[in-house]
């Protein structure tokens, strides 16, 4: 396994997840609910891919320090955690937009 390529794949998928969620929020502001749902679904799939890679890396490490921790690895972890948190908050904001638009 090419560790650096695997880590970059994690970063790319995490970034894609966050970007898709942000696009879903922009669509929610416009009331484009079919687009919102499609973008959130795509975001979920990107998150799952990133999480799968993260799980694979954790499995390779076996809690024994077998996988070297370097700056790119820390950066990748930052990306996935930020993307996951952003997505959760964006879903809450989308729910608020949905509610407000329904009640107006």
Number of domains: 1
What gross morphology would you assign? elongated
Rg from alpha-carbon coordinates:
16 Å
**Strand portion, in percent?**
under 5%
- What would you call the structural class? mainly alpha
Terminal Cα span: 54 Å
CATH superfamily: Phosphotransferase system, lactose/cellobiose-type IIA subunit
Q: Which fold name corresponds to the CATH topology?
A: Methane Monooxygenase Hydroxylase, Chain G, domain 1
What's the architecture in CATH terms?
A: Up-down Bundle
Q: Characterize the largest beta sheet: strand count, sense, and whether it forms a barrel.
A: none
Count of helices? 3
Keywords: Phosphotransferase system, Sugar transport, Transferase, Transport
InterPro entries: PTS_IIA_lac/cel (IPR003188), PTS_IIA_lac/cel_sf (IPR036542)
Modified residues (Phosphohistidine): 75
Pfam families: PTS_IIA (PF02255)
What does this structure look like?
This protein is mainly α and 104 residues long. The protein has a single domain (3-99), classed as Methane Monooxygenase Hydroxylase, Chain G, domain 1 (Up-down Bundle). Helices cover 85% and strands 0% of the residues. It contains three helices and no strands. Helix 2 (33-61) runs antiparallel to helix 3 (71-102).
């Amino acid at each position: 396994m090419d560790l650096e390529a695997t880590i970059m794949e994690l970063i790319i998928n995490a970034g894609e997840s966050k970007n898709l969620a942000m696009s879903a929020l922009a669509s929610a502001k416009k009331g484009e609910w079919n687009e919102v749902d499609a973008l959130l679904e795509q975001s979920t799939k990107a998150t799952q891919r990133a999480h799968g890679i993260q799980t694979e890396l954790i499995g390779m490490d076996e809690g024994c320090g077998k996988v070297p921790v370097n700056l790119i690895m820390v950066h990748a972890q930052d990306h996935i955690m930020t993307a996951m948190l952003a997505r959760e908050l964006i879903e809450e904001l989308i729910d608020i937009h949905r509610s407000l638009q329904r009640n107006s």
